[in-house]
Amino acid sequence: MSYWEKVNSISDLKALSLKELEVYADEIREHIIDVVQKNGGHLASNLGTVELTLALHYVFDVPCDKIVWDVGHQSYTHKIVTGRRDSFSDLRKNGGISGFPKPSESECDSFIGGHSSTSLSAALGLARARDLKGDNYNVIGVIGDGAMTGGMAYEAINDIGECQEKMIIVLNDNKMSISPNVGAFSNYLARLRLSKRYAKFKHNLKRGVAALPFFGDKLVGMFERTRDNLKSIILSNKLFENFGIKYYGPFDGHNIKNTIEIFKQVKNENRPVLIHLVTNKGNGYEIAETDAEKFHGLSPKSEGQTYCFSEIVGSKLCEMAKTDKRVVAVTAAMKSGTGLEKFFEQFPERAFDVAIAEQHAVTMAAGMAKGGLKPYFAVYSSFLQRGFDQIVHDVCYDNLPVTFLIDRAGAVGADGITHQGILDLSYLGMIPNMTVLAPKDGDELEDMLEFSLTCDSPLAIRYPKSFTAKYEKNTLASVTEWETIKESDKNKYILAVGNRALDAAAAVDDVNVINARCVKPLDTKLLSKIGNGSVVLTLEDNVVSGGFGASVLEYFSKENANVKVINLGYNGFVDDMNTESSLRTAGLCGENIKKLLK
Description:
Elements: H1 3-6, H2 10-14, H3 18-39, H4 44-47, H5 50-59, E1 66-69, H6 76-84, H7 119-133, E2 139-144, H8 151-163, E3 167-173, H9 184-194, H10 196-210, H11 216-235, H12 239-242, E4 246-252, H13 256-266, E5 272-278, H14 286-290, E6 307-308, H15 309-323, E7 327-331, H16 341-346, E8 351-353, H17 358-370, E9 374-380, H18 381-384, H19 388-396, E10 403-407, H20 424-429, E11 435-437, H21 442-454, E12 459-462, E13 466-467, E14 483-486, E15 492-496, H22 498-505, E16 512-515, E17 518-520, H23 524-527, E18 535-543, H24 548-558, E19 564-570, H25 579-585, H26 590-596
Parallel strand pairs: 1-2, 2-3, 3-5, 4-5, 7-8, 7-9, 9-10, 10-12, 11-12, 15-16, 15-18, 18-19
Antiparallel strand pairs: 6-13, 11-17, 14-16
Helix pairs in contact: 5-6, 5-13, 7-8, 10-11, 15-21, 17-19
C-alpha cells in the first residue's frame, strides 16, 4: 500500500519516518500533476511547496496552530494532508474542494486566501487575538517572494517588528526576488545560529572575553564586527533584522529533514522570526521547472471554439502604440494573463510591470496621464478592487485619462469566490467622471480601444476571459450609444451588458434585445423611447446591488415612468466552480428569461 492511501490526517502524517516522508512527497507530486492536468489549477507553485508543507504539518498541530497561506494557490498539499485526500480528485469542481484555503471547507484552513500579500497581516491579527484571550498556539504566516512585492506585506512587517508578537514567518523564496545566496556553508552557518549550544557558547565567549582586563571590550567589539561582516557577506540580507524580526536562512526548502529541524528549533521562540526557504517552482516535474510561468496555472480543456479578449487587447494595443507614442501599458505581475506579452516584446520602454502592487499601478498610471501619456492598466477585475481608493482619489478626482482594461470580469468559475469579478460595475459605476464600457465581442472591444484614444477622462472597459460568438459588426457612430440586436413590436425589452448576457438574451424570441455596451453613462436617449406599460429586463454578469440594472431602475423612477423593471444578476458572493453554473444560478439563461417575460 502506498503512503498516499495511508495518510489522510495529521496524525497519520506524524507517524511516518523521515525517509517515508520523502517517498510520500513524491507520491503527492504525482497526484497533483495528474489532477491538475485533468481539472486545471495551479501546478508549479504547488509542486514547489510539497516538502515545506509536510514539514510544517510534521512539527505544528493544525487546527490548534494556525497556518495562514498567502495567495493560497500553493495549498494543495495542505488540503491533502488535512482530511481532503479523497475529495482532491474533484479539485475546482462543483461539489469538490476549492483551489484556495477556505475556512468553510475545513477548520484546518485558518484564513481565506486568494489575493496576494495578505498573510502577514492576518497572521499578526491571529497572534494578537491569541495573546489577548490568553490562548496558547503558534501562528505561522507563509508568504512567497512574489507576494513580498506587495506593499501590504511591508505594512505588516513594520507592525510585527514594532510589537514583537510571537509568530513565525515562512518566506517561500523560489529564487525570483530575494537573496540567492544558497549553499552548504550558508546552510551550515544558518543552522549553527539556531543551535542552543552555539548560542550558549557565543554568550559565554562574549562574557569571558569582556572580562579580560584592559582589552576585553575592544576584543568583543572586534569579534562582533567580524561576525556581522561575515554574516553580511554570506547572507547579504539584513532587511528583516532591521525591522526587528529574527532572520534564519536561507535553507533548502526541499530538504524535509533540515526543514523539520528548523521548525522545531524556532517553535518556542517568543518573538517574531522569519525562516527563509528556497524552493523551485514546479519541483520534480521537469517541464514545469523549465517554464514555471506557463505552468503556474492550467485550465481544463474546453470544447468548441473560443476567442480570447486578452489576446485582442494585446494585439490592438500594439497596433495603437505604433501610431501613437503616448500609449503605454501597465500590469501588476499579470503580463501573460492580461495579454500584454506582445506589447512588452515590441515596446519594452513603454511597458511597465510593477509587480503585485495594484494601488501603486493605479496611481503611477495617474501620474503618467498627468504627464501627457495614455496609460492602459490591464488587470483582473478582482485584483482591481485593491486599488479602489487610488481610482477615486488619484484618477477620478482630477479626471485623468487612465484606461482600465478589466480582464476576468464576471463569474470566473474554478478559481472560486476570491477571484470572481462580480463587483466592478457596482463600484466603478458610483464614481463620478468614470465611463464604463462592456464589449459584446472582439470587434467591439477594438472599437472601444480606438475610442479610448480620444477619451480625455477615466475609462473602464470590462470583459470576461473568453467569448464564443462574434456578433455582426456594429454600425453605430459611438460606443457610448446602445445597439439594438433584435427588434420586436412587443413592449418587452432586454437590456444586456456584455457577451454573456447577450448570449442568454439571444435564446428569447419576440422581444427587443439591446446591447447596453455603455454601462455608464446610460443611453438615456434610448431609454426615453421605452413607453409606459413596458417590461424591461436587465441582465448583467455582476451583482445586482448598485449595478447596471439598479441604474436603469433609478432612471425610470426619476422619470416617474410606468415601466416594470426586473434586474437579473448575482445577489451575493459567487462560489460556483463552473461559470455556466454561476450564470444559471443568477438566472442569466434563456429558460429563466423566457419565464420572466411570459
